[in-house]
Amino acid sequence: MKKYVISSIIAFLLIIPFGCTDMDDNAVPSSLEIKDFVWKGMNLYYLWQQDVPDLSDNRFANQSQLNAFLEPFATPTDLFNTLRVPSPTDRFSVIYSDYSVLEGVLSGNTLNNGMDYGLRYKTGSATDIYGWVRYIIPNSDASNKAISRGTIFYAINGTPLTIDNYKTLLANDTYTVNFADYDGGAITPNGQSVSLTKTNLAEDPILISNVISQGTHNIGYLMYNGFYASYDNQLNTAFGTFVSQNVTDLVLDLRYNSGGSVNTAVKLASMITGQFTGQLFAKQQWNSKAQAYYLANNPGSLENKFASGLNSLQLNKVYILTTKATASASELVVNCLKSYIDVVQIGDITTGKNVGSITLYDSPTFAKSNVNPNHKYAMQPIVLKIVNKNGFGDYTAGITPTTLLPENLNNIGVLGNVDEPLLNAAINQIIASGKILPQVPSIIERDFTDAKSINPLRSEMYIENR
Length: 466
Description:
There is one protein chain. By secondary structure, the protein is of the alpha+beta class. It has ten helices and 26 strands. Strands 5, 6, 7, 8, 9, 10 and 25 form a seven-stranded antiparallel beta sheet that branches. Strands 12-13-14-18-19-24 form a six-stranded mixed beta sheet, with helices on both faces. Helix 6 (232-244) links the parallel strand 13 and strand 14 (249-253). The chain is globular. The chain starts with 5 loop residues before the first strand and ends with a strand. Mean pLDDT is 91; it is low at 1-21.
């Protein structure tokens, strides 16, 4: 049998001369072209390909047999979901019917009203929930309304939030947010509300960047909410400002950063340090057939190394603020920096996402060039696991902080203010003030989801097309 040749969409990967069967001797009906793309892309790249019998290289002897398998699936999405391993192993692979939407989310461009929020269960309930505002995105509809960090909401359009309706209610382009008062967990409607409308919004991931002077310490504080490659220059500029202001310590706030570009994560780590240029930051582990090919032909393509030519602080210690919402590329930075410098993690345990994805388009090479003009489907499947230079990457239960300090809605604080609990805890450790940390409640309330996690694509760790 002939082997079909598929080239990688990733710049550092070579053309991959492996395939499963003779797929060139039978035509693909136009009605099956999207499903054919889904199966072949998953067969080649999916991290857990060997664990899915229907993705086996020997599953079909020819294209006719594959066509017969594909025919019964009602939609490409149904097929895609059938080819995935069950959650929680794969919680993150997604397929989109319009790749322009997928591309927008990965670059920080979304249909958004600017209210970033977390959702929690009401005390004692397994069905009733409420929301709280984590931050407001500048230049959004919410930024012009009477709503701010710490605002509690219990209903949308007058309908109380439940575990069954919150996705539908919050998916509307325009809705009214009904507010409530919070008192030690008690949620009491207060009659106040605002109407919010979503627009196409590009979120600058650098929400706050400033320098806090504390005695002999110039403490850089960076609240960074997404690893978006299109903002790499702004990130480098922020670190240039830190360098020019003689920053001696850095507090990196990743508490609401659900991930993004691996390349941007490498750059951020290189800006924090700078003394490890060219050394191994992270190693990639693909499915067995891809891994074997790269190890035999270009093992260096599996390595992500510290970058050069960036503004860097040359630090040997960094303070990183985390919550349960800290995921993927954020966790990559924490895990991989630990192999080189002292990472003091303050806050809550992270999500536990140690795998990454790529974008697959329906084209001869799965790249966007020469894409099939008949549809706009694209996939973002999990294709690799990333470990640090010591080979550790098993943190699917999350990365435990050095100092446990979950966010407490009774004392939420103002982001960037020296009295905000998590930042204050970092400052006190930096200056060795000896102050006692806020007491951790005996019962910790955590978000079960948030504005970014509702859309799985917003918590991706991915490698961009180059």
